Records
---
Amino acid sequence: MKARRIVLLTAAVVLSSTACGKGSDGSLLPTDDSVTAAASPSKPPSKAKTPPPDGKALFAQHCAGCHGIKGDGKGETPTERPPRDFAKGGFAFGNSREALFRTVSKGMPGRSDMQPFENRLSPPERWAVVDYVLTLVPQRSQDWMAGAEMRVDDEARCVWGKIPSLKKGWPEIPRGLVVGLPNGITLVWGREPAYRQAVLRGAFLKRSDWGGRGGQALELRGEVILARKPRTASPFLADGEPLRSRWRSASTLGGDRAVLRYELLDEVGPVASVTDEVAPDQDGWRRTLTVERAPKTSGDLVFTLAGPQDSGVALEREALVFSWQGRPTLRLSVENGRIKKRMERFVLPVPSGAPSRIAWRVQRLRKRSDRVEETR
Ligand code: HEC
């Protein structure tokens, strides 16, 4: 049991690269406004006798061990998840100077190697080190970091945060993952369970959740083309029972696709690990799930595509057609498998043998009067 877990963990660590965010438990948003209270960096100290702290030297002393002297994440201290290359820009937990100050002060939520520095460095020292980190971030990233408006250019992007309610009467998703693809498609995952909850098209998102006390929802900027009421059960069923999920990482690997990794668990422990890869495909996307079962697990494993709560989904000639607000919007066809109907669900069986791969394409169905207004 323990051995299984270790094997999966190691695999996840080796495979993850530029992590978009945390996969562990705990609040995504530190909500302590003492950060704001301490935030008056430009005010000169009343007795200006001590020289201002040297951010570069402090970075070398306190951060470079993990982050590398150039901030490229290639420090000597081994970490469970590799620290990002600052030159790539775009931080998972907020990009503004204030947000970075918060990250450095409070650390990253959950069990991260990125520890809080509030007891080790004074506020002026933390500001100095943050300003130094910002010199390592390219100008282009800083431009979009300055405003909270986030865009997707030629690289996919993933952002963790609170997802607003997508339809009147639906709850918000307290913790979710938003993946933006370069073709203007935005996909939203819930974190527990790992479940794709919505699809949007158009501009990406605005994040204002780092202002004030945090905890505000992300502002999704695109047009919703499909959404489902936030789910509490995983789309993966083992012998008919939904599994729990545990995120490992979400990364973009610097290309146009995003790679999400999570584990599936039953009451006993890990049942399988999943690599969920999403890539743009014309004006839709292609999704490939690679499922690696834990040793000694067998039995029936299926991925549910739609269930009784989903309105407007129909099986038409080997493909599923999804409707949103009465209009067919998306068409899903499986590349290496067949959609089956079991009870009230459409399912994709995960073939046994390790690792199994299921892939499908989703095309966007255009409305007759289709004029996408982009708000970029
Ligand atoms: C013990 C290793 C370690 C030390 C020391 C360390 N960090 Fe980190 N840091 C990490 C890791 C690992 C991550 C990636 C976190 C993750 O994904 O869990 C990270 C992430 C970050 C991030 C990115 C947060 C985001 O929103 O994506 C910033 C900024 C950062 N560190 C700044 C600093 C600064 C400044 C210092 C020194 C004051 C420092 N770190 C010291 C390991 C370290």
---
Amino acid sequence: MRRWGFWLALAGNLAAQGMGGGASALIWPAQGEYIGSSQCALCHPAQAKSFRVNGMHRAMAAIGDCDILQQHPRMTWSDGPYQYLIEKTEGGYRYSVANGAERADATLRYAFGQGKAGQTYVFEKDGRYYESRVSYYRELNGLSLTVGAQNARPADILQALGRLMSPNDARDCFGCHTTGARRGNALQLEKFENGVQCEDCHSPGAAHIASIVDGKPKPGTIRNLRGLSAESTNDLCGSCHRTWETIALLNIRGPNNARFQPYRLTNSRCYDPSDQRIACTACHDPHAALVTDAKAYDSKCAACHNAGNTAIGKRVCKVGGEGCVTCHMPRVEAPGSHHLFVDHWIRVARKGDAYPD
Ligand code: HEC
Ligand code: HEC
Ligand code: HEC
Ligand code: HEC
Ligand code: HEC
Ligand code: HEC
Ligand code: HEC
């Protein structure tokens, strides 16, 4: 394992802040005032238009705008004695659970996840937030247990309905799936944007706008994010996709960690912290849709794996062919997720090999 020095420093730092949560709180942009992505779109129409088709844009929706629920106005599922129902009513989407003797219900408030893999619902009771115990999964085109819910039997009917989130849990949940709901270490739901938007990555924009007096903004008023190294990009994207350090600290082992791309990529022999050719942004345009044509990634590999690169020397592919990622970035099912995540630990993956970790 690598970089233990940093790991220890981070552990100390998190402990000092009383944090053990999923979010990498160290680089959370908290300074300044949010102005909203519709403002950015006025002067940066190209990025605004292409970002609309990126899945991050739809990482969370208010329940009334949720496509999946509109397409599935009634969904049922059962787990042992518990019968689940999500149903469209005049007052919104009612979510209930009954076990013959008891019943609990709530009106859903927020839909988390664009639904490419799955979608989980959040509701409120007595001023506290709960995560639904069942989620929608694309692969099933219906409901099943929320990831993590299989680990604990509910002690009562309310627990069967959902998991009560601690204030920190709720803050982190909204922090990664919205823009501006998390302010520093606090959660506020008065004013924020659904989904990951411009100011999540670029930092709040008020100072940038204020500095534009002659058509040119003052440098340093907004993060330009250009030319970041692989390591700095891992830190930026990893503030939500989780950094190597976060996964090591939380000790998440096995195929469960396939969904944490910065962690997996860092473990690959292709990874060089100072090289931009292996940064997340070398393969993913943060303002455009995820590219799903495997061949489109060949040129990204060839940036390093080419005949002229004497540093890699003899390591050339004897199997070869187009679509390098189909063999070298295998798809792995994270248990309970009903989704095959692309493993970012680029490697020679042979049939029957154990999952490297
Ligand atoms: C009133 C117009 C205007 C608005 C609104 C605006 N920008 Fe800009 N922005 C500019 C101009 C002008 C530049 C300089 C462009 C150049 O030098 O090519 C710029 C530059 C940038 C840069 C590059 C900064 C650099 O140092 O190179 C980023 C990133 C950026 N804007 C993001 C945003 C985001 C995010 C928002 C919304 C929060 C936003 N802008 C809102 C006009 C605007
Ligand atoms: C503020 C949190 C946040 C940051 C920062 C962030 N992401 Fe994401 N990203 C998400 C969430 C949440 C999703 C899941 C969207 C969904 O499926 O609902 C996601 C999804 C994605 C996807 C899949 C999109 C799709 O259509 O399936 C890619 C690719 C991605 N992110 C790349 C990046 C890269 C590259 C960076 C850094 C430049 C980055 N992300 C930074 C939160 C973030
Ligand atoms: C540290 C940031 C972070 C936190 C905290 C977080 N998420 Fe996510 N979430 C992500 C990212 C990033 C993805 C995209 C995963 C991918 O496609 O690689 C995601 C994906 C999802 C998905 C899509 C389905 C899936 O399995 O990928 C759902 C649903 C979801 N999150 C719900 C939640 C809920 C509910 C909470 C709070 C209890 C939460 N998330 C907390 C970052 C976060
Ligand atoms: C997931 C993180 C992420 C989100 C969300 C995001 N950006 Fe960016 N943006 C980046 C990165 C990374 C770069 C640097 C790209 C590069 O290296 O060329 C960048 C660069 C830019 C630039 C400078 C382009 C240049 O080459 O001068 C502008 C302007 C910009 N973004 C505007 C926006 C606007 C407007 C939005 C919202 C519609 C937005 N960004 C959303 C990550 C993001
Ligand atoms: C060498 C190229 C490469 C690099 C570098 C890379 N990715 Fe990917 N990524 C891919 C490929 C290929 C896919 C699969 C696209 C598809 O769905 O067909 C993918 C898919 C994803 C997805 C969708 C999740 C899923 O499996 O459904 C997310 C999120 C993502 N990448 C985030 C990141 C982040 C964050 C980084 C930086 C730590 C990163 N990627 C670096 C090639 C790359
Ligand atoms: C930043 C440069 C860079 C990029 C981009 C890159 N690699 Fe690598 N890759 C390397 C280096 C360096 C090694 C290690 C060579 C050695 O140890 O001799 C390596 C090793 C490998 C190995 C052998 C790994 C092992 O564990 O034995 C495979 C397979 C591989 N790369 C495939 C790919 C594929 C496929 C892509 C594109 C998805 C890619 N690489 C992108 C630099 C890169
Ligand atoms: C059909 C599956 C497949 C495709 C497509 C493929 N590879 Fe491979 N690759 C393999 C296998 C299997 C090995 C291990 C060969 C051996 O040594 O037995 C390998 C080995 C490698 C190695 C390591 C060589 C060494 O000596 O350690 C590199 C680097 C590599 N591939 C890069 C690539 C690149 C770049 C591409 C795309 C141009 C690519 N591969 C396409 C299956 C594939």
